[in-house]
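We emphasize that the prediction below concerns an isolated chain of 268 residues; any contacts that depend on oligomerization or on bound cofactors are therefore not represented. The input was used exactly as deposited, without trimming of termini.
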Amino acid sequence: MKKSHPLRRIVLATAATVSGIVLLLSLKPTTDPNAAQAAGAIPQQTAAGQESAQGGAAAAGSGTVTGRVAQTQYGPVQVRLTVSGGKITKAEAVQAPSGGTSTQKTELAVPKLNQEAVAAQSADIDAVSGATYTSAGYKQSLQSALDQAKAAGGSSTGSSTGGGSGNGGGKASAPAAQARTVSGSVAQTQYGPVQVRITVSGGKITKAEAVQAPSGGTSSQKTALAVPKLNQEAVAAGSADIDAVSGATYTSTGYKQSLQSALDQVGG
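Result of the prediction step, given as a token string:
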């Protein structure tokens, strides 16, 4: 019964400590910094690769399309979309009713409609209470813009498919893939707004038309006289350097401004 209990405890504690140190030293090689870096490099590279791939896809599928003008009881509505990777990333109304209470309703409704268009990715959106006409016009122009975006996507797909079917098929599909329709910004004139839409193929204007022009009274007569001439000159000149039509100076000036805006969009 002459056991030295305190000494025995010290010996056991020392042995336990030594065993723990030995175990830690034996485990250390598995946490080699080089191995840790190698393991961490894979997820970092993968993340970078994903960002690069996403950025490339967005750039390849990006574009801006403007829908047709929808005439409502309180004024025109027109929507422009930014599409990336086949999805709507931005929606905005480049035209909306204004003046008096219309301005207040537009300021209330348009931001909501823009948000819904991006969220729904379609024209199937709810009308904003108190702005029924604006909402209806917005949806019409939005659907027009979506149709243009789908048509552009279809042309690209058709070109790729045709390219693999021989030389003849590739040549026939190339011009269709290059065709593009854009609408210029609205030019406000003394007698009303003017807006031009052009179709460009192979770097040339193949069609020009005024989707908006002054109307009412003598303005309708002047528009009917001037616009066809301006359309022809735009196609013939391939630029906005066209002559004004006598007797329709304001309309001609607005036409040239909107035409130049459309050309700027296509890099013309």
